[in-house]
Design a protein that fits this description.
Radius of gyration: 17 Å
Largest sheet: 2 strands, antiparallel
Structural class: alpha+beta
Number of helices: 3
Oligomer: single chain
Distance between the termini: 25 Å
Order of helices and strands: HEHHEEE
Number of strands: 4
Length: 115
């Protein structure tokens, strides 16, 4: 798996730190292919927290919409095709969501325990 860089230096070169810590996650295979077992464990923990946030948010929005009479609504947000995981040791999870309309987007942030 080749990590991708998100930011560039002012000279346009890729910073070494970013090359080693920013990964594009498309499938579970991408997580399995991370360089170390520790990175795999950390990525799984942080990504699962983001997915749990997404599901809780989805279920809450759907319940509110159904209560308001929109009974045909079963999904309010979509998990992205590609997630970016940064191995920075901070335990911060920011999840960017897309709405099924393909237009609306929003983000949620959480702190994940290192345990």
């Amino acid at each position: 798996m080749t990590p991708e860089n998100i930011e560039k230096t002012t000279e346009g070169e890729l910073p070494i730190r970013d090359l080693l810590t920013v990964f594009q996650i498309r499938t579970l295979r991408d997580i399995f292919a991370l360089p170390t077992l520790k990175q795999m464990e950390t990525c799984l923990r942080e990504m699962s927290e983001g997915m749990i946030q997404a599901r809780i948010t989805n279920d809450t929005i759907v319940a509110v919409l159904q209560e308001a009479g929109a009974t045909e609504i079963t999904r309010a947000i979509e998990w992205p095709e590609v997630a970016t995981w940064t191995d920075d040791g901070k335990g911060d999870v920011t999840t960017h969501y897309g709405m099924p309309d393909g237009v609306s987007e929003f983000s949620l942030h959480a702190k994940v325990s290192s345990e």
